[in-house]
Each structure stands twice: as C-alpha cells, then as structure tokens.
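Notes for week 9. Today we move from apo structures to complexes. The key idea is that a small molecule is not decoration. When we ask for a structure prediction with flavin-adenine dinucleotide present, the ligand SMILES becomes part of the input, just like the chain. The input block below holds both the sequence and the ligand string. Read it once before you look at the output, and try to guess where the molecule might sit.
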Amino acid sequence: MAAPYDAIVIGGGHNGLVAAAYLARAGARTVVLEARHKAGGAATTDSPWPDAPEFKVTRLSYVMSLMPPTIIRDLRLASHGYKVYPMGPYYQAFPEGGSIRLYADDARRNHESVARWSKRDADAMPRWDAWLAGLADVLGPLLLTVPPRLGSRRPRDLAGTLRLAWRHRGLDVRTIADVTRLMTMSIADLLDDWFESPQVKGALAVNGVIGTWAGPFSPGTAYVMAHHSIGDVGDGHLGNWGFPEGGMGAVAAAIEAAARGFGAQIRLGARVARVLVEGGRAAGVTLDGGEEIRARTIVSTLHPRTAFLDQVGEEHLPADFVRDIRNWKTRSGVVKINLALAELPSFTADPGTELQEHHTGSVEMAPSVEFIERAFQDAREGRPALRPFSDGVIPTSFDRTLSPEGTHIMSLFTQWVPSDWNREPHAAELEAYADRMIGLYDEVAPNFKASVLHRDIVGPYQMEHEYGLIGGNIFHGELSLEQLFHMRPAPGYADYRTPVPGLYYGSSATHAGGGVCGIPGWQAARAAIADRKAGRRGRRA
Ligand SMILES: Cc1cc2nc3c(=O)[nH]c(=O)nc-3n(C[C@H](O)[C@H](O)[C@H](O)COP(=O)(O)OP(=O)(O)OC[C@H]3O[C@@H](n4cnc5c(N)ncnc54)[C@H](O)[C@@H]3O)c2cc1C
C-alpha cells in the first residue's frame, strides 16, 4: 500500500492542480494522480512536430481571462512565471473588402472602426459596452458564489438561498429583466435589438457560440457570450483576454509549481480506475494496474461521466443523480488547428507582413451571423462545415518564447464538425476541413496558405481519447441553460460536494467552469477544507 495521504486529487488539469495547492496549503498531505505523462490537461503547451521542436503550440485552450485575482495572489502564480499579455482588438477582414476592429477598452477607436459600416451601430456601441459592463457586475460575483440548493427546505440550504437573495437585493426590475434576456435569448436576436450591420453582428456573435453545440440563432447563446465577456472576475474589466507567456501550459506549470511548493506530490502516468467507496464513504482509489491509494478526502476533476459513472459506480449513487449524469450534454464539434507560419498574414484590407495591431488580437473568420449559423447547420445535418468559422489568435505577436524569430504560431479555434465525431478519428476528413479553413483565411490574406510551415489538427476524437474530454466538449459539458449554476453538474450537487461523503468535485463541469479559471478546483478544495475543520465528511446524508 502506498504512503498515507489526507487528500487525493484525481486529474492533474489546472483545476486539479489548484485544488491540490489549496489542500496542501491548508496542511493536508496531498497527492495528485494524473493519467498522462504531463499535468495541465486542456491547458497545455506542446511541440506537435517532432522534426520542428522549436515550434510550441498552446494546443487546446489558447487565451486566459477568468482566473480570479484571489487565486493568482494566493498561489503566488507570478513568482512561478505566470504572466499574461493583454490581447489586441477583435479583427475581421471581409472577403468583399474592408475590415472591422472591436476594442475592449477604446471607445473612440471602436466608434471610428464601426462607423465605417454603420454610423448607427457606432453610436450604439458605448451603450452596448455599458450594458454588458452592468451585467458583468452582476454575473462576475455570481461566478464566485457557491450555488444554493434551490428547492431544498433544509435550514442550511434555505440559508444559502436567502444569502444569495440578500446579496442581490439591490437589483432593480430592469437589471433582472436584462439578466433574464441574457439567459433565454439567442445571441442573434439580442444583437438584432442593438445593431444593424452584418459585419458588427458577426464579430459580436462569435463569443456566443464558442465551444457550444448551438448556432447563433439558438436560445441561450446570449449567455455564452456573456460568460466569455465577463473578463477578470474581481476587478470587473470586460473581456480583457490575454496570452500567457509560454502558452496555456505555462499557466498549468505555474500552478503545478505552487502546489509542489506547498508540499503536494504530483504523480504522472497514474490513471485512476476506481474510487473506493466503503461504508458509503470515499476511502481511496485504485489505479490501472491495481495499486490502491487511500485517503479520507478525494477531489475528482474528471469529466462527470468518468468521475461518477465509471469510477464511483452507479451502485453507490442515487438514481436521480445517475440519470442526470447520464443525460449530461457534452457535445461541441470543435476542431483546434495549430499552425506554424513562415510569416504573418498580409490582409488585402490591411496589407503587410510586419507585425501590426490587427495581428495581436482575435483574427476572426466569422464575417456574419448567417455564416456562423450555416457552419452549425452543416454539422447538425451530419457533415463537417463547408465554411467553418474560426476564432484565430497569433500569440507570438507578443510571446516570443513559442517560435523562432521571424516565424509565428497561429491557433485556430474552429467549429463545427458533427457531434458524433468523437467516436471515430475522421483523420482524412479533418485534413480536408483544415484545408477549407486555411482557404477561407487565404481569401482575405492571400499569402496565408503559402505561409503555413506545419499544421496540427486536434478533433473531437483526440480530445476525448487523449485528453479525457468526453464527447469532445471543451468544458466537460455544455454551457447550456439546463447545465448552469445550481444545475451544474446536477441539481442538488452544485456545491462541489457529491452524493458520496468524502468525495468532492471540482472539474469544469461545476459552476464557474469551463475555462481556465481555477474556480471549480478552488471551491472543491474550500468545501473539503471547511468540512475537515468542522469534522464533517462532506455531503449531508
Ligand atoms: C480546444 C479547446 C480550446 C479551449 N480554449 C479555451 C480558452 O482559450 N480559454 C479558456 O479559458 N478555456 C478554454 N478551453 C476550456 C478549458 O481548457 C477547460 O475548461 C479547462 O482546461 C478544463 O480544466 P479541468 O482541470 O477542469 O479539466 P482538464 O483540463 O480536462 O483536466 C483533467 C485531467 O484529468 C486527467 N485524467 C483523465 N482521466 C484520468 C484518470 N482516469 N486518472 C487520472 N487522471 C485522469 C486528464 O489527463 C487531465 O489532465 C478550451 C478547451 C479546449 C478543449
């Protein structure tokens, strides 16, 4: 039997590492068990081309935003190399000519850029930004709130519900209506209420469908836009996304260093097979190969189907919880395309291969809402999108650690392929899909195709089989309305505790996930530490 631990963290993604850091900081002898040869999960920097190891890509996730300053401070991440370069504007060049830029924090230049397409939209922009900022003030703090057990009459749960209501007692009728709109509307309808030009609407619609198995006309996509627009939780800035130096793997590495610094052990190549449940309580885990490791506190950060149905087992779980996890929606049809470029794209609308401002932000391929919707409809009908949309970034416009001088890395987050492409690799079709994607950029930047030195394509099958992202969903589960807040991952279990006492849950499939924000891992550790202090072992019976 292995050395005794107080706490086991299953999964060494960024949430597992955050949980381990907090547990170890609180004095728990903690071990992280990670199946892969490296920690970080979907926050990873890799060299996918063996014959060109000098190029490093941030292979899955690619930009930072939602990590609360509290976590950054508590774990002293800056001292472990955490450094984020704020991104430049959203940029879209149009096949018919011209371009648009949208700035997160420069009203004057926003107005100038948008007015080229619509004076009315340019005038509406400051009101839109203010409206979103107001909603961020409501939604931002909610991300740090432990969702109450709505509907429960138990005194402790009622107190949680009342606390939430009290905190929001200042909200007026208009704000509550706006939040309701956000939760229920499609991003397309919401944008129609504000803007008239297809160019502006296309650029603003992207955040509504990122990682989502829903087109811009689907209800609920307005909320997805808000989730991606809240920015740093805690200091209230809107949409200030940034590139971490060293790629997203450097974020995970900084958290890993913090966890080790607090005394946590991290075991790589340690795939957990089962969670041991004894006398109705979590008692430890067994690894593939049979090794048993015991501890009184376990924090799982895996996809909910893996964590509960495969590793705990239905026999230890209430039937309604099993049903909810079986029904958990976990599609997205995302394909990540990572490129090594010999030179920067020279756009017909804004020529030049020297580094310019429009290379430093999101280099979009989403010229209109209808373009995005068409891509979704293709995938819904069972075909990869003929003309996929892409949220592209060139992190090397700031971060020179990822590629040799003069060359660049471009990361294309693209959608959609059919939702069942997690079942087969579809390798040849993904190559053709990447050709089409590159062709679309080539239409607006004619040096693009020829500038591609290497390409790396990660589709849903690889996301599921290599990284444990079941169904290829980038957040361990869709950000659809029925899977948010007190329903994430299941009604009654959104407080980072589970039906099994001693087992806590802190993956992106809990409230505030997904994204590389660390909040789920932090909250799960906090719940475990609080229960330990109070002499409890987690969930009420
Ligand atoms: C293509 C893509 C793009 C994205 N872009 C962004 C972005 O730009 N910005 C952003 O904020 N978010 C982005 N996300 C989402 C974000 O990356 C995830 O929400 C987040 O990284 C998940 O972190 P996690 O720790 O909850 O889970 P994971 O990162 O999935 O970590 C789980 C860990 O568990 C390990 N594991 C699995 N099975 C076992 C087992 N049986 N035993 C032990 N270990 C196991 C896995 O190897 C993995 O390391 C993106 C995701 C993807 C896939």
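The chain has three domains: 7-45+247-329+473-533, 104-232, 330-467.
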